[in-house]
Design brief:
binds glycine, 2 domains, Creatine Amidinohydrolase, Chain A, domain 1, binds manganese (II) ion
Length: 462
């Protein structure tokens, strides 16, 4: 954990922003996997981690802004629990680690909330993403479960977004710890990759590295020669000479800060001339996008610049045609680059997405587009010092999308459909790094992970 003062200061700032009310911050609980005592790996809620830091199930935090009190509710282990799970310091002691001096048994949460409500205190809570927590809040507040989503406090959400989106030096250090693990994950995959293996043989080792160095993965590992499927979680393909595999993976540091890195790796250790050309187009768009990252510029503008570089590269390869600015304005590039340039990253790999992606990534000045491709850009507004974002352009040849557009004649003035058809089977290429916005520009976080064609081929053949 960070120092107790870090958590106390975060809660103090939250109280200052909100000015009043009772803030409910439920921690996560163990969730049954296939029977009650066999549970999924525990993952604490990220906002609970941010304000209270304690990485254990069965806890509930209340910040009583009106009475300037921070309280943790939870039960100490009984001897029967100790027999199976081992001893654990009492909550009163654990709470000191996050600067909280007042603790109560879990059963007292309900009383505290009822008493606050009877004094007309306003109760605030955040969006919930687990059924168990929706039921818990519905019981505690005495309202039907299907009214919980409608009762989310927008003021609370906005305050948490303000605080969690801007990273401090100690948070950046945690992200860089996760990136140290990413370095090992990616270079190990490059060294191991060879024809004859099944994807899962590398996938399993990459995921195992996250467990041996830290708290596990920040999202399920994507490792596939069918990289044109953006989030491909199938790992049964054989790796063949001439294939390229997309490895999109991330680790969590001990304190659950994420990394998120993509590299595209040639199975035989060498890119073909065509793979190299497509790769270098993606790399050029990523490099220029990162170069543009600084306070004050809209991320949407950088996304569109990356899209233009991709369009120019595809025109050079004969896959697109026409004026690149017009093609990007029409969204024609999205046939090959159908996702956003990047997203916020922090305690969640898609940071703050659970609180409302559009609230976190857009504002009155920058509205979310509904155009195919651009609509998936998760963060569009102006960049600020302290934000951490990914930069992850890609080029993909998605058979069904190519065929659909061809039948619909969609953007036919910008696409050479015959050439696009001929690329079916090529797969996809994505390159992703994690970047912090600094006062004067940006810094790519972590130890550089081999990225140019030459660097990757060198590690593959080492
Ligand atoms: N979690 C996949 C990505 O955003 O890169
Ligand atoms: Mn990724
Ligand atoms: Mn990402």
């Amino acid at each position: 954990m960070f120092r107790p003062e870090t958590y106390a200061e975060r809660r103090k700032e939250l109280k200052k922003i909100l000015g009043g009310g009772l803030l409910l911050i439920p921690g996560n609980d163990d969730v049954a996997f296939n029977y009650p005592a066999n549970t999924y790996k525990f993952r604490q809620d990220s906002s609970f981690l941010y304000y209270f830091g304690l990485d254990a199930p069965g806890l509930f935090g209340i910040i009583d802004v009106d009475n300037d009190k921070d309280i943790l509710f939870g039960n100490d282990r009984e001897v029967e629990d100790v027999v199976w799970m081992g001893p654990e310091p009492p909550l009163s002691e654990r709470a000191l680690k996050c600067g909280v001096n007042e603790t109560h048994p879990f059963a007292e949460v309900e009383k505290y909330i009822s008493s606050a409500k009877s004094k007309n205190q306003i109760v605030h809570y955040l969006p919930q993403y687990r059924a168990e927590k929706i039921i818990q809040l519905s019981d505690l507040l005495g309202v039907r479960h299907n009214t919980i989503a409608g009762g989310v406090s927008q003021d609370f959400v906005k305050a948490v977004i303000i605080q969690r989106s801007l990273k401090t030096e100690e948070e950046l250090s945690e992200i860089e710890r996760a990136l140290d693990i990413s370095y090992v994950m990616n270079t190990t995959a490059m060294k191991l990759i060879q024809p004859g293996l099944i994807e899962r043989e590398i996938y399993g080792i990459v995921e195992g590295i996250t467990l041996s160095y830290g708290a596990g993965v920040s999202f399920p590992v994507i490792f596939s020669v069918r990289g044109e499927t953006l989030h491909n979680h199938h790992h049964e393909n054989a790796l063949k000479e001439g294939d390229i595999a997309v490895l999109d993976s991330g680790a969590e540091s001990a304190l659950h800060y994420a990394s998120d890195i993509t590299r595209t790796i040639p199975v035989s250790g060498k890119f073909s001339p065509l793979q190299r050309d497509v790769y270098n187009t993606v790399l050029r768009s990523q490099t220029e996008a990162i170069e543009m990252m600084k306070p004050g510029i809209k991320y949407k503008e950088i996304h569109l610049r990356a899209a233009k570089i991709i369009t120019e590269g595809l025109i050079d390869l004969g896959l697109m045609k026409g004026n690149p600015d017009d093609a990007v304005a029409a969204g024609a590039h999205a046939l090959f680059f159908p996702h956003g340039l990047g997203h916020l990253m922090g305690l969640d790999v898609h940071d703050l997405e659970g609180l409302g992606e559009t609230l976190a990534g857009y504002d009155a000045e920058t509205q979310r587009s509904d155009q195919f491709g651009l609509a998936y850009l998760r963060y569009g507004k102006k960049l600020e010092t302290g934000l951490v974002l990914t930069a992850e352009p890609g080029i993909y040849f998605i058979p069904q999308l190519i065929r659909n557009w061809e039948v619909e004649k969609k953007n036919e003035e910008f696409i050479n459909f015959g050439k696009a058809e001929a690329m079916i089977g090529f797969g996809g290429i994505r390159i992703e790094d994690d970047v912090v916005i600094t006062e004067n520009g940006h810094r790519v976080l972590g130890r550089p992970i081999p990225k140019t064609v030459e660097e990757i081929e060198e590690v593959c053949n080492s």
